[in-house]
Structures are given as structure tokens and as C-alpha cells.
Amino acid sequence: MSSFEDLPPELQRHVAESCNQATLLSFATASKALYQLIIPIIYRVVELSSHNGSDIHLIAESFKVPPDWARRRDNPIDEIVYDKQRAFIRTLRSHPSLGKHVRTLRWTTVDYSKHVFEDEITPLWNKYEKGIISRRKLRMSLEEYDFNDCTSYLWDTFATFTHVQEVDIAFINDQREASPPPPLFQQAKCLRLSGMASSFLIRSMLKSVNPRSLYHLHLNNLNQFAELEDVQEELTLREKGKLRPFPQLAGTAGPMRTHLLKCSSKWCNLQSLIIDTVGLTGPQPDRADETTINALEVEQTRYRELGVLIKSVAKTLKAFRFQQGPTTDNYRNGWRRPRRAPICSSLRPPRDGLRPMDALFHQHILSAILESTWPQLEKMELFGVASNTTYPNRAAPWINRPLSDEIFSRIRTAVGPNPVLDIRTDATRLFWLVNGSEGPGVPEVDSGESTEDEEESENGLEE
Predict the structure, then answer these.
(1) Measured on CA atoms in the order 72, 77, 80, 81, is the torsion positive or negative?
(2) On the chain, which terminus has fewer CB atoms closer than 10 Å, C or N?
(3) What CA–CA distance (Å, rounded) separates 186 from 209?
(4) Phi then psi for 208, rounded to 5 degrees?
(5) Burial class of residue 257 in the structure, from the number of CB atoms within 10 Å of its CB (0-12 exposed, 13-18 middle, 19+ buried)
(6) pLDDT tens readout for residues 307-366
(7) Does the pTM of the predicted model rise above 0.85?
(8) Which domain holds residue 259?
């Protein structure tokens, strides 16, 4: 070991960076000097995610979670990730200074593992039901396990990452954040956000990042819960759940919107922008009912917001990708049964023509591309965009026709002769879309639940 410690620091670091985690941990316990060398390397990359693995069996029909990160039933990978996350948070709560070494964070908000539920959480509930511990004690104990509900436990851990530069988080929660987040990831250069969350949570994260530091942004099929009417967003989940009368919904769940309004104009150094999103495929507006008309109005607002973002950052972008695609469900894609047809009858496709997503692409995204200047651009990718859609027969899928040569020529003129243009009629994947009638992700809490002061004296059980 002495021969290794005699090497120059640069060589020591080079050797250490080529070692696996187990070897690094052995090095770190050898001496104080090696500990100081190894610990920053061990904590540089925090890989505690399950949404990036290509070897994971996915359940496309999962209700809450996108098929490309689907919540796997009893999947051992999720259980392993959860156990590692819990151990990691314990370490950071005991030694928060370690957080300053983190440069890359990849995290999936998975549920607690099955063995933790059976061996630790269930006994806590049994103690509460038998009167051995109070409700307040139960709630405090559960905080250690429920961190992926976006509680203060999780935010306190993330807040220690004061020098993190790459952040990749997938939210696959059944409900919105339990507590509002503090300013996080202020020095992040690369930000990738996926899954389903409240628009308030995503806005908070985007506003926290120093706009001059952000170089790469990927908004990966973000969906949101339905919004609550006239409710202060900074309230905790429990406080929202105790409001009476329970707040009315101000909108429906679906693709995220309003999260870019106060941020996009400030990203003055953005070099790459990737927008992957589900699009509305039908039915056609002239045959739509009131619900679909309202959905189209929401989509108009959302695509307009994306167009404003593109215009505001085009001058600095080197790489740009916009991808829109359908869901795995024909019914969600506008396929309908004929009127008065029996339930068992097959679905009919929407009428031929422009899918609503294509019309919105032309109106907002394409116009933003053509009206912007792209002096730094090296590559532009437009996936899932079409000039029109036809159906060869009722059973066959749609056929998307490519954009016209005239439109392609206009795009080429706008971006210049040098950037690579990759324009495809179909998306590279199917997308998940939250049920449009899905609620706000706020479970109602018994308004008669005892206060914390009452809980402290409940049965004389507090420590």
C-alpha cells in the first residue's frame, strides 16, 4: 500500500477512478490520506435509478406509470434500488458534508421494497392499532420509509448536493409531493425530468437552477396531476388533504403545462433541448364532443408554451429534438365505437387527415422553428411529425405521410445548410398518458384528526 501512496496525486486519482466500488471502499479504509482521495470518487456519481435500464421487464398496461419506466410488479431491481436509496439517505443525514462530492444524480422515486413493508412498516401499523404508539409517533417513524413521496427527507438529502452538475429524476408517484421542495440543484448544467408530478414541483426545480449554468435540458414525457382551485401550492400534501370543503379541480390531469412560463426566457446558455411528449391523436375537432374540445384548448396552450420556449433558446442551441407520439391505447388515440354499437364491437379509427398533434405542430412548433435563427445549431431532430394521416382499413394502424418537400426546404433555409436534419413521420416510441380524469393526487385526510399537541399526550405514549 505504501508504494501506491508514494505515487503522485494525479496517478493515484487515475488508478482509483478505474477501480470498482468494492475496491474503492477497501482503499478508503486503509488510511486517512486515501480516505480523503477516495470518498469524492465514491460519491461523484449517485446511480440510484431504475428508469434507465434496458434489461427491465416493462408492463405497458400499468395505469400510473409510463410504459418506458413502468412500475414493475414485485420487480427485484426496484427493491434493490429502494434499499440502496434508503441506506444512502441514512448516510447523508448522518454526514451531510458528503453531498458536496456529488456531481451526477440519477434517481427514480420507486416504492419501498416488499421486505421493508412486511418486516418494518406493517409492525409499526400493528403497534399503532394496538395503542402501543401514538399517531404522531407512527407518522414520524414512517417518514424514514416514505421519502420517495417527495418528503422533506428526500429534499434535505438533495439539498446537500451543492455542486451537482447532472440531474436525471423520474417521478413515478401515485400522489403529488408531500412537501414543497427548497431550492435545489442550483449549479446543474444538465437536467432531465421524467414521469408524473405536480406542475408546481417541476416549476420549482426549473426556477431553482441558475439559468446561466443550464446547458442541457430534457423534458421527458412529463405528465401532471389535476390542479386544485384556489389552493396555495406551498401547502404540504397533508394540509391540502385536510382542507374542507375539499377543493374543486381547476383542470384535468394530462401532459404538463405552465411549467415553462417563467423560466424559458432566462436560459441564455442552453446548448441542447429535448422535448419528448405524448400528443393528442383524435378525434378530429369537427366531430369532437365538449370534453375533447376542452382538451384541444388545453393542448393549444401547451404547444404554444413549447413554441415560446423554442424561440427563446434557438440562438444558443447546438442540438434540438422535438418528438411527439401516440399512446399504446387505441381508445386514447381517438378510436371510437359507432353510435348505438354494442360494447363488443370493434373500434373505428379517427377520420383521415391531420391528427390534432400534427396540426398543433404546424401551428406552434414549426412556426417557432421557421421564425427563429439558429446560428449555433449542429443537429435538429423532429420525430412523430406528419403532413397527414390515412387509414387503409379499420383494423390497420394509421399511415403517416412525410412533411412536404416545400416545408422541408423552409426548415433547411431557417437552420442553414450545415446542421444535420433528421425528420421522421413516426415517433421512436409509444408514450404513456395519464388518465385525463385523474384527480389532483391529494388523498383526503380526516379533518377531525387530532392535532400534534393532542397527539403528544395521546395515551401518554410519547417518548
Answers:
(1) negative
(2) C
(3) 4
(4) -70, -35
(5) buried
(6) 999 999 999 999 999 999 998 788 788 887 777 777 677 788 888 888 999 999 999 999
(7) yes
(8) 2-460
